[in-house]
Specification:
alpha+beta, 60s Ribosomal Protein L30, Chain: A, 3-stranded mixed sheet, 3 helices
């Protein structure tokens, strides 16, 4: 498990009044945090993909996300909690920017969002 909190795709970019897109300060700070968190796991990730053959193998990814904001006081799903599908792209792009494998080889994705007292994100990568 990496000590990384999720970042929604919606929080990564903003637009100027003229319509130009740019990376937000919050996203830039998050990327630095992710890079520091990956440092202790980078060798392990590099070993996982050593000798990866895209003609014979695919990458499977599982992401579990925990949040204390999943439910409202009336126990319904909170519409303000981060959308699960918006969590995938920022973390995948950041992890794979440190590897010599293209994230285009991810052919299987599983994700879940669950209640937790503390926010967490657990990521599992597997060669198949």
């Amino acid at each position: 498990m990496l000590p990384i909190l999720p970042m929604s795709l919606n929080q990564c970019e903003a637009s100027t009044r003229g319509g130009r897109r740019y990376k937000t300060k919050k996203f830039k700070a998050w990327r630095e945090h992710v890079t520091r968190g990956l440092e202790t796991h980078l060798r392990e990730l590099q070993n996982l993909f050593e000798g990866f053959d895209s003609r014979e193998e695919i990458i499977a990814l599982e992401l579990k996300f925990g949040t204390p904001y999943l439910r409202t006081k009336s126990e319904t799903i909170n519409k303000k909690s981060i959308d699960l599908d918006n969590i995938f792209k920022p973390i995948v792009d950041e992890i794979f920017s440190h590897l010599e494998v293209d994230d285009a080889f991810i052919c299987e994705i599983h994700g879940s969002k669950q209640y937790s007292n503390n926010e967490f994100m657990e990521i599992t990568l597997e060669r198949k």
